[in-house]
Structures are given as C-alpha cells and as structure tokens.
Amino acid sequence: MQCARDPDVETELRCGKCETPICPRCMVQTPVGARCRDCANLRRPVQYTVPPLLLARAGGAAIGLAIVVGVATGYALPHLLRQLSFLALFLGAGYGWLAGLAVSRSAKLRRGMALQAAAALSGVLVYVIYNAMAGVALLPRNDLTGYLFVVCAAAVGWSSLR
Fold first, then answer.
1. What is the phi-psi region of residue 29: left when phi exceeds 0, alpha when psi lies from -120 to 50, beta otherwise?
2. Which of 97, 99, 110, 102 is nearest to 52 (CA)?
3. What is the mean pLDDT of each run of 10 residues along the chain (162 residues)?
4. CA atoms of 112 and 33, how far apart (whole Å)
5. Which of 40, 50, 68, 79 measures 20 to 30 Å from 150, CA to CA?
6. Does the reported pTM lie above 0.70?
7. Where are the alpha helices (DSSP H) in the chain?
8. Are residues 119 and 89 in the same domain?
9. What is the Cα–Cα distance from 46 to 37, expressed in whole angstroms?
C-alpha cells in the first residue's frame, strides 16, 4: 500500500481516525495514536498567539519600564554602570528578568518572538535613556560595562519569554 501524500513510499501505517495510508514522515503522533496531518488538527498553542492589542500593551510596558528605570537611575546614580565593572552583568540580568516579567504580565502571560523582542529592546532602551539622563553620549565609545549590561539584559529578557 502507498502513502497518500508520498506515493513513492510503501507503508503499512494507517491514520487512526480516517484509515488513510500514511508513512512515518507524514504521521503525527497524538495521545490517541498515529494520525494524518488533516486529522491531527495541528494548531498553535494559545500561549504563543498574541493579538495586536496584547502586543501593544506589552510594547507599552517594555517602553514604560525602560523610561522609569532609565530616568530614575540616570538621575539618581549617573555614574553607576561605569563604577560597577563586571557587576553590571548582574544588574543587566536583573533588569532583563524584570522586563521579561513586565512584558509577559501585560500580555496575559503569553510568550513568543514579538514579546521576546520587546523585552530585549527594553534592555537597550533603558541604557540609552540612562545615558541621556546622566549627560553623556547616548552610546559612548569606551563603556564596556554599559555594553555588558545591555547584552546581558537583552539576553535574559529574550530567553525569559521562550
């Protein structure tokens, strides 16, 4: 017997629902057995579908958090990142986690690529706002600790929404 989708492949498998011949490449394993792709009813999980309104709320939360944290730290502690050296990694990780949490909560605990990008961009934006408030260039040339903060914040923010 030949597979319904791949006619050049011989198979003894059949869909558990419609009895269509399927090969191992076409088969989808479900909790009730092997099914063809039509009967398996493959859908994307609700957790990873983000409607435009929730995406806008998540973007607003990411920008709002970056503004609040960037203005507060840039005004109160203008030279903080330059004095911390490698400890900026921990601050970056903390901010990335906070950005991921804020984005996820504002999007009703959804996840996905767009929300990951919002959390990662929040880590970049907070650094730019911090520099603007501290009175230095937006992207200083020799600020290794600041760039470590940005990379760590973006990486943790991105990975927290997988």
1. beta
2. 110
3. 87 89 88 85 79 95 96 86 82 96 95 95 96 89 88 96 90
4. 29
5. 50
6. yes
7. 37-40, 52-76, 80-84, 88-106, 113-134, 144-159
8. yes
9. 19
